[in-house]
Amino acid sequence: MSTNKVRAYYDEAYPPIPTKATRFWRRSILWQLVRFFVLNLKIMRIIVGGHS
Questions:
Q1: Which of 12, 18, 44, 46 is 20 to 30 A from 3, comparing alpha carbons?
Q2: Is the pTM of this model over 0.90?
Q3: CA 39 – CA 28 distance, rounded (Å)
């Protein structure tokens, strides 16, 4: 019978904790609306470019 030691996870195994600024931008409705329209414009450029 082998005696395996149980090791705890290393700190690198856990995800990074977001900073206050990151949490602010993730919760900002205005920023999300801007990003939504920018993403939609990028998608529309691809679609319109494929149909010409």
A1: 12
A2: no
A3: 17
